[in-house]
């Protein structure tokens, strides 16, 4: 079939059975412990959450439904021969677990295109925003404004059966994903770019390329860059801020898990509400906003040291950043312990499309300088670059120079991952993560008994 919803519906009963079997046969086994250190340190590394769409290996980086980024660049359908994958193909993979054919990816493109028009009230609302409102705040606000059309909220009000929840959640997720490029382009044209007229989508273009097109960019390289960008930022397991916040807001009761009757603090917010929660988290400077911070930092380097910077000068600049109590943006990661493959694939793109671009050369030089310095601090667990160290370089090259807009592009992509998982969370009846919190006194007491 080329019908994504039908392909998903066919998968769900088997996966529900699989989860039931996992619980029945292994329910009482411990996946890991939680030390006092982990409880104080934000439950880092405690294996206590189910997330189907991607898995992060600390050494190797992310795999989407079992596939690494280079494998996806090879296997997913493309808009042009030898080019980058289209994100619609990844959406099919994230939703169904299967690599789509070109026809299946094309059907997703068409479904998204049919639902892409923004209601007037959302555009009006965006145009009333204070001119200095951060683009991420505008994104979250526009997503919330769309919530009036939520099919899940309407279905819940009319009392649909819990086994059917996933269907309106799927519809809302597709509606929202379809509209996000239009929202992002409207934010870009209206606010970031001082009131430029909006551009209608090109019906011949795919979802990712249309985002660049509606922002006002038509260069073939830029369209390819946007397809790649929108593919690699989709998902990064469930524990990061944007994924976890989306997941928490949407989570249901334990009694919705097949075979359970006991309830626990649910939220069950629809995809609009929960994705907005994820986006307000993504807007933080140490998470999604890091790509904006990287660009500002690189601009500082160029202003202070110039373009033909030596390794020694760069080293000095990095040390001065650290000594002033700041982080080196674009380096380090909470879970990864090697260079982020999302960095590597963007560096490969730059090598192919912009080998002589000074900002690319500067970024490549930083890769030689920063890790050694961060190692010398003795505390940074991962001294290597992450996804955000490179994305701004690609955007700048094609003329997308407004760095405070970058996280919006990250957010549009993130929707594909967290909303696909959201559909599965409802199909599997997954409940909220509700860890037991303890006071310091309670921890001291328990620890003394151990
Ligand atoms: N520069 C300077 N110091 C750094 C650092 C960096 N790039 N990365 C980590 N450290 C420091 C931490 O601040 C911490 O110091 P502290 O004990 O004095 O507070 C110490 O090293 C240990 O931190 P960690 O366990 O290695 O990292 P973490 O899990 O606490 O934080 C992250 C991870 C990403 C927030 C951190 O590496 C960082 O701040 N990096 C720079 C910002 C950045 O690039 N963020 C984007 C991440 C990817 C994403 O979410 N989009």
TrEMBL record:
A single BP term in Gene Ontology: carbohydrate metabolic process
PANTHER family documented for this protein: CITRATE SYNTHASE, CITRATE SYNTHASE, MITOCHONDRIAL
Protein family (similarity comment): Belongs to the citrate synthase family.
GO cellular component: mitochondrial matrix
InterPro entries: Citrate_synth-like_lrg_a-sub, Citrate_synth-like_sm_a-sub, Citrate_synthase, Citrate_synthase_AS, Citrate_synthase_euk, Citrate_synthase_sf
Superkingdom of the organism of origin: Eukaryota
The entry's keywords: Transferase
Protein name: Citrate synthase
Keyword set includes Transferase: yes
Catalytic residues, chain numbering: 287, 333, 388
GO molecular function: acyltransferase activity, acyl groups converted into alkyl on transfer
């Amino acid at each position: 079939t080329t019908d994504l919803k039908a392909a998903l519906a066919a998968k769900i009963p088997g996966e529900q059975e699989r989860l039931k079997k996992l619980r029945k046969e292994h329910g009482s086994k411990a996946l890991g412990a939680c030390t006092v250190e982990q409880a104080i340190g934000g439950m880092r590394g405690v294996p206590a959450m189910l997330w189907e769409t991607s898995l992060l290996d600390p050494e190797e980086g992310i795999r989407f439904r079992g596939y690494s980024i280079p494998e996806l660049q090879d296997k997913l359908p493309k808009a042009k021969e030898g080019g980058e994958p289209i994100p619609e193909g990844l959406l099919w993979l994230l939703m169904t677990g299967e690599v789509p054919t070109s026809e299946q990816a094309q059907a997703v493109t068409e479904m998204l295109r049919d639902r892409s028009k923004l209601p007037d009230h959302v555009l009006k609302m965006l145009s009333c925003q204070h001119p200095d409102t951060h683009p991420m705040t505008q994104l979250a606000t526009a997503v919330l404004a769309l919530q009036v059309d939520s099919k899940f909220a309407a279905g819940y009000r009319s009392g649909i059966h819990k086994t059917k929840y996933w269907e309106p959640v799927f519809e809302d997720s597709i509606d929202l994903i379809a509209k996000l490029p239009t929202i992002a382009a409207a934010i870009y044209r209206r606010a970031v770019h001082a009131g430029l007229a909006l551009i209608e989508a090109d019906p011949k273009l795919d979802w990712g390329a249309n985002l660049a097109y509606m922002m006002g960019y038509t260069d073939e390289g830029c369209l390819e860059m946007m397809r790649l960008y929108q593919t690699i930022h989709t998902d990064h397991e469930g524990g990061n801020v944007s994924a976890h916040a989306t997941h928490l807001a949407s989570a249901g009761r334990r009694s919705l898990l097949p075979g359970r009757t006991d309830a626990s603090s649910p939220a069950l917010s629809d995809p609009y509400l929960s994705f907005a929660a994820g986006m307000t988290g993504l807007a933080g400077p140490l998470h999604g906003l890091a790509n904006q911070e990287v660009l500002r930092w690189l601009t500082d380097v160029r202003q202070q040291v110039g373009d033909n910077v030596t390794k020694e000068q760069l080293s000095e600049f990095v040390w001065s950043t650290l000594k002033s109590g700041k982080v080196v943006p674009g380096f380090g990661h909470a879970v990864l312990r090697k260079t982020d493959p999302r960095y590597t694939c963007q560096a490969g793109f730059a090598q192919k499309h912009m080998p002589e671009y000074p900002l690319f050369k500067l970024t490549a030089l930083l890769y030689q300088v920063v890790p050694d310095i961060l190692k010398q601090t003795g505390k940074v667990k991962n001294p290597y670059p992450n996804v955000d160290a490179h994305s701004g370089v690609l955007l700048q090259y094609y003329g997308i120079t407004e760095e405070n807009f970058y996280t919006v592009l990250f957010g549009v992509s993130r929707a594909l991952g967290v909303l696909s998982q959201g559909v599965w969370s409802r199909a599997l009846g997954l409940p909220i993560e509700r860890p037991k919190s303890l006071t310091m006194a309670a921890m001291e007491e328990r620890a003394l008994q151990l």
